[in-house]
Amino acid sequence: MRVDIWSDIVCPWCYVGKARFEKALRGFAHRDEVEVVYHSFELDPGYPADKRSETNLQMLARKFGLSAAQARSADGQVAALAHAEGLGFQVERPIGNTFDLHRVIHLGLAKGVQRDLLTAMNEAYFAQARPVFDPDVITDVAAAVGLDPAAVREVLDGDAWADEARQDESQAQQIGISGVPFLVLDMRLGVSGAQPTELFARALDQAWEGRS
């Protein structure tokens, strides 16, 4: 059985949802027969690639007309959910365009380390508030899970895996995905959002039972 998951690296709900889904998967009787593939989805594809000065709290305040205190409170609510899952979470983090990160994640998929790479990127960003949009940081995080730093740099310096990332995004549009995380189990059962672990567990059971 295959599970396809659309997510973005800077999406806190994706971070929480990934932890909950993986907890459900660990308790799934047929977990060794499940292939999980992560797909690219940009929450803000128009965010300037060269902009490095804004934080997530400043972005929330600007985008939704919130005060600084309101923005911190809003992100703090997600932080509490992350902590409940045993995840590290810094409320204030740098923000940036994530397309290059998605391209490197596709490299990780090709090399068999996609899940480890995404986990490492999530931890670097949410738990440590590292500027994962910086090429040096991306390379460091990727190297820590076994990717060749030179291969990562080659991706970042060119346009490798761009078509694959765009194809993911095009497929999301065709399916009708407007928010992430979004899971599709065996291309038949869709689950939207950072649902409770119990719901993910039921979805896995339902998808498995519905296999022809």
Written account of the structure:
With 212 residues, the chain is of the alpha+beta class. The protein has one domain (2-209): Glutaredoxin, CATH 3.40.30. It contains 9 helices and 4 strands. It has a 4-stranded mixed sheet, with helices on both faces. Helix 1 packs across helix 9 (197-209) and helix 5 (114-127) packs across helix 6. The longest helix is centred in the middle third of the chain and has 17 residues, at 68-84.
Describe this protein with a few key phrases:
single chain, alpha+beta, 212 residues, Glutaredoxin, globular, 9% strand
Major sheet details: 4 strands, mixed
The Rg value, from CA coordinates, equals: 17 Å
User: Can you tell me the CATH topology?
Assistant: Glutaredoxin
Poorly predicted spans: none
**SSE arrangement, N to C:** EHEHHHHHHHEEH
Describe the global form: globular
Distance between the termini: 11 Å
Strand order of the largest sheet: 2-1-3-4
Task: Indicate the percent of residues in helices.
Answer: 40-55%
Please give the domain count.
1
Regarding quaternary structure, how should these chains be classified? single chain
Please report the number of helical segments. 9
- The second-level CATH architecture is 3-Layer(aba) Sandwich
Give me a quick take on this structure.
With 212 residues, this protein is of the alpha+beta class.
Topology (elements, then pairings):
Blueprint: E1 2-7, H1 12-26, E2 35-40, H2 56-64, H3 68-84, H4 99-110, H5 114-127, H6 135-144, H7 149-157, H8 162-175, E3 182-185, E4 189-192, H9 197-209
Parallel strand pairs: 1-2
Antiparallel strand pairs: 1-3, 3-4
Helix pairs in contact: 1-3, 1-9, 2-3, 4-5, 5-6, 6-7
